[in-house]
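User: We ran a pulldown and think these components assemble together. Before we commit to crystallization trials, I'd like a predicted model of the whole complex to look at. Sequences follow.
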Amino acid sequence: MAKKMHDTPNLDKLESGPWPSFVTGLKELAKDKDYVVDLLGQLETSYQTKKGYWKGGTVGVFGYGGGVIPRFTELKDEKGQPKFKDAAEFHTLRVMPPPGMHYDTDTLRKFCDLWEKHGSGLIAFHGQSGDIMFQGATTENVQKAFDEINEMGFDLGGAGPAVRTSMSCVGAARCEQSCYDEAKTHRAVLNTFLDDIHRPSLPYKFKFKFSGCPNDCMNSVQRSDMAVIGTWRDNIRTDEALAKKWFAKHGMDELVNDVVARCPTKTFQVKELKKIKGGEHISTVAVSDTHGVEIDNRDCVRCMHCINVMTGALAPGKDKGATVLVGGKSHLKIGGLLGTVIIPFMKLDTDEEMDKLVDFAQRTIDFFAENALEHERTGEMIERIGLATFLEAMEIDADPAMVNSPRMNPYVRTDGWDDEVAKINAHKSKKQQAA
Amino acid sequence: MNAPVQMRKPKETGVPDNKKYLHPLMAKNYGNWKYHDRPRPGVLHHVAHSGDEIWSVRAGTQRQMDVYTIRKLCDIADKFAEGRVRFTIRSNIEYMVSDEKKVAPLIAELEKNGFPVGGTGNSVTMIAHTQGWLHCDIPGTDASGVVKALMDELYDEFRREEMPNRVHLSTSCCEINCGGQADLAIIVQHTKPPVINHDLVANVCERPAVVARCPVAAIRPAMVNGKPSLEIDESKCMCCGACYPPCPPMQINDPENSKLAIWVGGKNSNARGKPTFMKMVASGLPNNAPRWPEVAEVVKKILHVYKEDARPWERLADWIDRIGWPRFFEKTGLPFTKYLIDDWRGSRANLNSSTHIRF
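Assistant: Here's a predicted model for the assembly, 794 residues in total across the polymer chains.
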């Protein structure tokens, strides 16, 4: 039995209503834990005053420089003593999840047991960077909790100016749109940078995210410094039985209005069967005895829309891989940035191909570490130095797939033009010879 | 002398392999799925090239979960789903079952225990959110509480698939926007410059780092009352709060003047149009804990108009692309103030340089 609860008139109002209530959960924990009784006391105070009362500090585990988010209360009485003394320290451990956030119940129960013993008993699945967040432990207990978590085969994630914990989608484990092995790639890349995860020493945070297809379920383009997004190069695959099944259920209006009209490049057409042309780059499939679909894949931008609507009837091709974009981030400091295409396509089937991605990631982080200003993200760095400079450092040739359009102003010194053309031609002939 | 305490060295194991956590059918058909459909809201039915079928039942959680709740979820997994679960990026839990007959009893068990089943396809799914007053060191508001209050209001839309397309929501407790991009986002918007405690700055803040952090160069070092401190050019300051994390004596949170803003039209998917960032469409809403009714009203209004007006498969951004911003503001009844005209870097691209105007 814990000590008496503080009055929580505001929090009580978050117990009604149908959605699961975290307040009810905290109150359950508070029955046995003075720690959570006082946590509720401080949280209720925040609800009354509309102020936060946590400050950071330095708390960690032996051998690592990051991965723990320290929190000490600032809610003090007139003598400078914590008003809710049992919750004066409320640190969080960030723990990296398995790719795709799959668990067995044995693991989850062990998490619960150790966190009931050493912490508040509150766990978030998951934080916005993808971490399992073990929320609320005293300074003394952080190491004990970590030791048990670590013995289970789990490791701390990133915090501060470090490579951060990553996320990957459910991907190949259950999704037909998966274009590479997200889980394997996620581990191959992240586990290369464990030192940069555990010992923050970069200019600022660096995030990777792995999405298996252009639906980008991991929001990688908006919120990762390096987004690895699955895609394919060959033709969209078709399945006539499923196409006819889809059409029988949805009809011509939906095919025209929801699919044809929404194709961003208008390369998806519905035609009478007799007018449909085949060809090397054309995908075709009958949807009825009279009509069919014709897609010229050269004009397809792999947006996923038609595949999302007619899943199974249409599917990504077989020559799969990924597009890599660099520089996505949220507002601070210069405003939100979406990632920019740096590698339009790369295969990720073999270990050697995956090594190429790891190598690119390594070179990007090395360059970032040496060239970014303090508290500058990769996107901001590239904005400052120009994409061309970054490409040169990465030894990657400029590619029109990297831009929305060529430059719209003449403010550039072009006296190296002929040399660049010669270089491109030399590359071309080298490739031709190799082929 | 005592023997030195032997500290345990960490095992730097990194990201764990997920293979042993996969449902057996998912492990068996890894990379070989053919298609999926949704037999009802909250249920995905995947079919593999091998002919194997798997049903995934998705349920909402409170994200910040007590161990009793997690154990309850585990009991359900042991009973129905071969002891395996996974979580989505929006903190929903998914149970995979290999037998269709288990789907209905699993749903009944989840709902009996208070976990709403839904969040799939064209539903309003769970709100991606942050820590807020519970754990953050710089929050302007709470996170879990805002989400609980809003999801109570959007409960039916989570359990149904009646929206034109999926609706992703997020909330963020400061302008850093940890909640991320979404079809509709609720973000703190401060309206007053930080209030500086000059007694503390010299001891707490690395002043050059704070100066460098300001996006509009409004902060400069200064001696105040004989102490080294910082001062703000308030005519330049746009109240973003970027100085507050590196310098807590520059208090940006204000119970009255920290407001909430609503943003719409973020989309990470490449489907149809390219990915987009969301746009601010409302601000000045009060930070009215514990249930934020004024925010809920605007959110519901926007979602209601979108639901009525958008065509199938139009995300919020696609819908506004079709109807145009004037009609968006007309239909939602939200005022278009001068503060919604972008004047940040690159803003000219957000101005209308054409005669494309819908009347």
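Chain A has a mean pLDDT of 97. That may be worth checking against your pulldown data before setting up trials.

User: Thanks, that helps.
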